[in-house]
Design a protein that fits this description.
The structure is a single chain. By secondary structure, the chain is α/β, with parallel strands linked by helices. The protein folds into three domains: about 10-170, Thiamin diphosphate (ThDP)-binding fold, Pyr/PP domains (Rossmann fold, 3-Layer(aba) Sandwich), CATH 3.40.50.970; about 190-345, TPP-binding domain (Rossmann fold, 3-Layer(aba) Sandwich); about 345-545, Rossmann fold (3-Layer(aba) Sandwich). It has 22 helices and 18 strands. It has helices spanning about 10-20, 35-40, 55-65, 80-95, 120-125, 140-150, 165-170, 190-205, 215, 220-230, 265-270, 320-335, 345-360, 365-375, 390-400, 420-430, 440-445, 450-455, 470-480, 495-500, 515-525, 540-550; strands spanning about 25, 45-50, 70-75, 100-105, 130-135, 160-165, 205-210, 235, 250-255, 275, 295-300, 315-320, 385, 405-410, 435-440, 460-465, 505-510, 530-535. It has a six-stranded parallel β-sheet with strand order 2-1-3-4-6-5, sandwiched between helices. Strand 3 (about 70-75), helix 4 (about 80-95) and strand 4 (about 100-105) form a beta-alpha-beta unit. Helix 14 crosses helix 15. The N and C termini lie far apart (about 80 Å).
Length: about 550
């Protein structure tokens, strides 16, 4: 019986199946129709048709962030591929595993000016860890395996493959098949590094733990908690690692990275040793916690951090985070090192902000009130995606988080408009959990077309719009630095009618007391897309800055 020959596209899909891919997000084009057709023939992969390639890249990025497996997005050549760039760059700067695949013009016309042809590999190289063009079907198994392997390595990130149209259609060698996936070895810390770390901790007076998103990637949350409890020292997280230590824990300080004078930063001012676990300086400028550059730092991560004068590392432990912390904890237990951690006022001040906000019945609503009420409605394991803008600053500071990866914040590239499409990726990753995306009105209008995608895929999602008819964060910065603002205000459509035009359920908060009711209704519905518009009073922004500027905490 004659062997039925596969083409390159079909071989590529075989390789994607081998990598465990369940969803591919994207838009077909003339030059990748064979790939899309091959995906649709697969019984293991579902193609999610999006309304914009940017949306596809954000869906893939969030899916990769939550699952630890690379999210996959596809596009046609030229403008389609270029539209993937933002989400790909976002994944790379957030250390999120993602594989992007696009079409390219045929090999017979790449040597000259040609319709929709641009050097895509050169375009993607600066924002990926691996970017190559597939020149022959024979190379597909190796290149796909490499793209996925690199995407998931010690510092996860984005990779990219470009497939010329004639290569996609070409017959593949019947002997070609996906490559086996080798297990990833766990890098162990050295005994000398652990010994040095113990000595540094023993010599410290006020050590503090800074937990970054690497803790989440390596599922090391329990070790961070154990280390904190063993030494009785506080833990601060970055925006991107909220929840690695529950905000209910007595040693949880909250997040750092907003500004120099926020509550958590006072703990760093009095510390002489920072135990930085899974931290990368992409997450925020270390100057905010080490302005004089004089603190000792123990850096524990899978990769050596880039050079920064305010992050002058005393000891680099470059190894897997879990065995590193396990070895450190064992060594510290033998030494019986313990600190008298003075309970700071930080937690009380955060709670006071929330309590004060909760009592307000003002419209527009206070940001503190919106954060408080959102937390009141949602369960511990519900997933909240927080967009970039003023909304991020309030949610990052005040939203109490109890489990890792339940409050997702982009603080690498800090891209606007990622949460609405990203919510689809989150829901597909965790179909049994409630997913809520919180965004400003500016972000909402940038990718609102993906509402249709969510409805078509019959996903239950809740979108909360903080409405101020302005690019609120930029207005905030302008008012701080210039004492006035320009070119930041705009008009909005009627968001209730806009939601209904897609087939979604629209709500508008007219009284502060209604917000919790509306959010609870949207969450408990279990079906459909729900869009809640909340007018927000951002006059609180400058009030907060003034308050923090006048605050002094002695621990």
């Amino acid at each position: 019986m004659a062997t039925i020959s596969k083409n390159t596209a079909q071989l590529l899909v075989d390789c994607l199946e081998n990598e465990g891919v369940k969803f591919v997000f994207g838009i077909p084009g003339e030059e990748n129709i064979h790939l899309v057709d091959a995906i649709n023939q697969s019984t293991k992969i579902k193609f999610i048709l999006t309304r914009h390639e940017q949306g596809a890249s954000f869906m893939a990025s969030v899916y990769g962030r939550l699952t630890g497996n690379p999210g996959v997005c596809v596009a046609t050549l030229g403008p389609g591929a270029i539209n993937l760039l933002l989400g790909v760059a976002d994944a790379e700067t957030n250390s999120t595993p993602l594989v992007a695949i696009s079409a390219q013009g045929g090999l017979d016309r790449l040597h000259k000016e040609s319709h929709q042809v641009i050097d895509l590999v050169s375009m993607f190289k600066p924002v990926t860890q691996y970017a190559r063009m597939v020149l022959t079907a024979r190379a597909v198994p190796e290149m796909v395996r490499k793209a996925f392997s690199i995407s998931k390595r010690d510092k996860p990130g984005a990779t990219y493959l470009s497939i010329p149209q004639d290569v996609e259609m070409a017959p593949a060698d019947p002997e070609s098949k996906p490559l086996p996936i080798a297990p990833i070895s766990v890098t162990q810390p050295t005994a000398s590094d652990i010994d040095r770390a113990v000595k540094l901790i023993a010599a410290a007076k006020n050590p503090i733990i800074l937990a970054g998103d690497g803790v989440t990637w390596k599922h090391a949350e329990q070790y961070v908690q154990q280390l904190s409890e063993l030494l009785n020292i506080p833990v601060a997280t970055t925006f991107m690692s909220k929840g690695v230590l529950s905000d209910r824990h007595k040693n949880a300080l909250g997040v750092v990275g907003f500004m120099r004078k926020d509550y958590e930063n006072f703990a760093f001012e009095e510390s002489d040793l920072i135990i930085a676990i899974g931290f990368s300086i992409q997450q925020f400028d270390p100057k905010k916690i080490n302005p004089a550059g004089d603190k000792k730092i123990i850096h524990i991560n899978m990769f050596r951090q880039d050079t920064d004068s305010h992050y002058d590392v005393t000891l680099n432990i470059i190894a897997n985070i879990r065995p590193s912390l396990a070895a450190l904890i064992t060594a510290l237990q033998e030494q019986d090192i313990h600190f008298e951690h003075r309970k700071p006022l930080i937690r009380e001040m955060i709670q006071k902000e929330l309590t004060t906000g909760a009592a307000s019945d003002a419209i527009p609503m206070l940001p503190q009130k919106i954060v408080h009420d959102t937390r009141e409605v949602l369960a511990d394991d519900d997933i909240v995606l927080v967009d970039t803008g003023a909304v991020k600053m309030w949610m990052a500071r005040l939203y109490q988080t109890y489990l890792p990866n339940t409050c997702l914040i982009d603080n690498g590239l800090s891209t606007m408009a990622w949460t609405l499409p990203g919510a689809l990726g989150a829901k597909l990753a965790y179909p049994d959990r409630t997913v809520v995306a919180v965004m400003g009105d500016g972000s909402f209008m940038m990718n609102s077309q993906e509402i249709e995608t969510a409805i078509r895929e019959k996903l239950h999602l809740v979108f909360v719009i903080w409405e101020d008819a302005s690019y609120g964060l930029i207005k905030w910065k302008m008012d701080m630095e210039l004492q006035h603002h320009d070119e930041v205000d705009f008009g909005n459509p009627d968001f209730v009618k806009y939601a209904e035009s897609f087939g979604a359920v629209g709500y508008r908060v007219e009284k502060a007391a209604d917000f919790q009711t509306m959010l609870r209704q949207a969450v408990t519905a279990k079906t459909g897309v729900h869009i809640i518009t909340v007018p927000v009073d951002y006059r609180e922004n400058l009030k907060l800055i003034k308050k923090l500027g006048n605050t002094t905490i002695r621990l």
